[in-house]
Every structure is written in structure tokens, then in C-alpha cells.
Amino acid sequence: MAASYEIELLDRWRLIADCQPVKLRLREQRVLTLLAVHGPVSRRRMAGMLWPETTEMRAADSLRVSLCHIHQQCPGAIRCDDGWVEIDPAVSVDLHTLRHRLQHLLLAPDADSLQEDIFLNTRQLLPDWDEPWLFEEQEALRQLQLRALETASAQLLNLGLQHRAWQLAQSALRLDPMRESAASLCARAESGQGNNASATAGLLQFIGRLKTELGVEPGPELLHTLTQLRGA
Q: Are residues 68 and 182 in the same domain?
């Protein structure tokens, strides 16, 4: 019977086979990561993406060796067919699970789903990896998390669940400390818990950081929130 595989790409790289960690060299980790992130890829394109600094022949040979190692150390984890390579559909990838849940909750949120801890999952896609073919997906995940956090926070505010709304807005600010929309939500949620003075002071401090660190003035949404807080 084939092993049950899990690939973890959030915060750090891990491969699990039947609940046991599998050690792979970095070159094999890169192959599996590229497939997990980009889906099925032709061997030629994959070799060029992974080894752009070498000749086409050497890149193809490096890929061939890596694929052989993967087949030997984790048989059944990948499929190779007609010049294409892909992760076996049965392999679980934590990135896919998180992305699917966030997209689903954005499309069909409800009061119960907004309480799920998945919104507090701000782990990033291999943040210590510096790979050109990974940059776009790293940023795409961060933006999806930010949209989900802010959407959920705003809806929780409308439901009167101020503390939970504040938690999610804070999570968004951890992902992007200069995000004005998240700062606005955070201040509104804090004010809704009866801490209007603290919320106002925090928002003024945030506006000060925008000016001193970025040299920009606050946008209309932030100024509107500040006006509301001062009038409360």
C-alpha cells in the first residue's frame, strides 16, 4: 500500500509519510515545492525554473537526478507522464487547505465560520526561501489572508462581536503593519468595547507612523474613522 503523504509549506518545509517525517535534500524539496505551488509542469520548464543559471542539458540532468531520488525516498508522491510532472492528487498540502478554506469563507461567510481559528492562521509560505518562482505565490497568499481577515473583521463588527473583530484586525496588522484599512477596523473594534480614548490614541499613533516612516498622509477611510472616534 502506498504511503500517505503530507507536504507542509507554511512557515517551514516538511514532508510527512504515514505520520513520520521524511528527510530530503534541498534540491528535492525545491522540486516538490514547485510542483505543489504551480501544479503540473513540463520537465523542460521545471528544469529552467529550478536551475536557470546553468545550461539546459545540465538543468535537465539535475532534474532527472532529483526525480529519481524522490521516487526512491517517497514512492508515489509524484507522477511523471509524457514529459510532465505533478504531485499525486492524494498528497495533502497545507497551503492548498488554507487557501481553499479562506476562499470559501470569503465567498460564503456566516456567523459560525467567522469564529473559526483559521482566520488567525497568518503563517506564511516558506518565508525564508528566496526563489523567484515562489515570490508571486508568497505575496498572493499574504493578500488572500489580509482580505479574509479584514472581511471577517468588518462582518464581526456588524454582528456586535467586537473583541473577535479586534483580534482579526490585529492579525491583519501583523501581516502588514502599515495597512490603513486594518488599523481603521482595529480602532473601531476597540472603541466598540468601550475603549474609545485608547482607540483614538492608537489611531493617532498609527497616523504618526505613516507620516514619519513612509512620508504619506492618511487616507479618507482612516480620517473618517478618526472623526467618528473623536465625536463619540
A: no
